[in-house]
Each structure stands twice: as structure tokens, then as C-alpha cells.
Amino acid sequence: MNSRFFASDNCSGIHPQIMDAIVEVNHGHVKGYGHDHITEKAISDIKQIFGNQAEVFFVFSGTGANVIGLQGCLRSYEAIICSDVAHIHTDEAGAPERFLQSKLITIPSINGKINANQIKPLLIGRGVEHHVQPKLISITQSTEYGTIYSIEEIKAITNIAKEENLYVHMDGARVSNAAAALGKSPIEFTKEAGIDVMSFGGTKNGMMMGEAVIFLNPDLAKSTMYQRKQNAQLASKMRFISAQFSAFFKDDLWLNMAVHSNRMAKALEKSLLKFKEIIITQPVEVNAIFAIFPPQIIPLLQEEFPFYVWNEFTNEVRLMCSWDTTQQDIDAFSLKVEQLINKHL
């Protein structure tokens, strides 16, 4: 089997500089649970991007990051407005509902995105004890369909939120790829655009594991130190997460990896456009490609290049590029597609 494939950027290995950072802190003893100079340095590195007012909490996983970030904003009778393809709705096994006891109200998305005009019609029954109370809007950047919100689109949503006394959360599992695509610093489309709380993903962009929950509205973080522990997301040997983040941000490694994976996706898109039998269904803006493939060749391709079928009824698949994807990987995949099309169609 090919050593690199397109199932997910979760499938890639650890960038050598990040692995070196883990090894470097693997000596001696330091205080546990984040009370160490390594974690202090990593938090300082994040504050250099998002400002000193930011409250930062490291956790193990993306699902954990979303739960912890949302939990600071909500009571059990308050609801989350999100897209119908939001990760918190479709891919977290009900974790937000279980831990938050909050209802998710979904909006039909276009290319994975929602817009400000869809929000106000959902703000009904406010102040009525019989109705769940919408309190937060959650968006994903980049989206589950590999598209990105412009700064203007985000501000339109956050402006509605501020008018209606709502918070805005950003699922930033692939926020590095969005920053690379926009050519903007993350603060420009988060804090400066009105986002209250976000996750900053590392696992999908070259880290071993670890995500950061960043409260850009620090008033929402007052209970988070307890909630992180209660939700089993407090690492005792936190330095092994923290050291990764310091390496991640050093010399813009996080951005360089995202630029590369985005570039590889554009190269993969170019290679697929030559096949009339394949239809690319979404704009290729970050490191993801969504395309409809002939059903006859999908399982045969997956034997050598594992990837996910996104919609089994339409034969739409998702192909993800990673920080370590190469042009040779793309060429090999394209050649296999060509061989299978010639043989089976």
C-alpha cells in the first residue's frame, strides 16, 4: 500500500521539528498539569498572535476543544446555531449535547457555510420559558467542505450576534489552512472580526496530538479550568502538548505546513480536471477536494489510496492533502485513476 494517502490529514505523521520538540522536553522533571515553563512559553506564543487578553487552554482532541470552548458560553437551556454539516453536529457522536445539554439548531448550508440572513428567523421564543433560548452561533473555518469564510462574511455573522446578544464560536480544526488561503493573520478573521471563542487545531497540521481552546472574550473563561478537568481534557504531562505548540509557531512552521497542503490540493485538483468522468463539487480553497467519482473505480482506488466516501448515494468522495503530501503522491494517484477509468469505463 502507498505510504501516504488521501483519507485525512489526521493520517499524516508528525513534522520532524515537532517531534524534536517533544524529545527535547523529555528529560528531568517539571510541574504537572500545565504549571511549567514550557506551557507558559506556548501560551505566550499564542498570545503574541491573539493578544494578551486571550485565555488559552490546551486539550487532547478537537472534540474536546469544541466542548470546552462551547461550555464556557452556555447554560443547558441555551442553544447553538450551526450549519447542517457542522462537525459538532455530524461527527462528534453527540458530545456537545451530552456534555453541554444544549440543543443544536441547524441551518442548511451552501458549500459548507451559513450566512447572517439565516440567523434571525431562528431567534423566536426568546424570553419564553417554553422555548430553548439561542445563545451561540458556531462556524467552522475552514469548513467541513473545504471552503473558507471571508472576513466580511464572518463580520456579517458576528454583527448579528452582537445585535442579538449572542456569542460566536469558531471550530478551527483547520484554521491554519484558512489563514494560508486568506493570506491573513488569524487575529484578523477571529478576534478583530468579532469571534468570542475558538479552537486552534494542531493534530491535522503536523502535530502528534493537541488542540488549543482560545477565549478571545476572556470573561467566558472563568470556569474553564474546572470544566477542562471535569471533561477529562486536562493533561497531567502537559509539556508534551505545549512543546508541540511552541515548535508549531516557531518561524511560522504552522503556516508553512498549511500553505504546502493547500498547494498540494490545488495540484491534485488540476490532475483530476483532465478526467471528464470526475466532477469536482466544491471550490478547492484549502487542503480538501470533494468530487464525484465513477462508482466502479472507487473501491479499487481505495485499495491503494485510502480515502473516504463522503456521500454514498451520490458517490461523492473527499480527498485530503497533508503537510507531507508530495507531487509524487498526486502523480501516482492520477495515474491509477487513469488506468482504472481506461479499464472499467
Main sheet: strand order: 1-7-6-5-4-2-3
Task: Find the CATH topology of the largest domain.
Answer: Aspartate Aminotransferase, domain 2
What is the H/E string?
HHEHEHHEEHEHEEHHHEEHEEH
| Overall strand count | 11
Specify the helix fraction band.
Answer: 25-40%
- The termini sit apart by 24 Å
Q: What is the C-level CATH assignment of the largest domain?
A: Alpha Beta
The average pLDDT score comes to 97
Q: How would you describe the oligomerization state of the chains in this entry? A: single chain
Q: What structural class is derived from the secondary structure elements?
A: alpha/beta
* Helical segment count: 12
| Model regions low in confidence, pLDDT < 50 over at least 5 residues | none
- The CATH architecture of the largest domain would be 3-Layer(aba) Sandwich
Number of domains: 2
**Which band does the percent of strand residues land in?**
15-25%
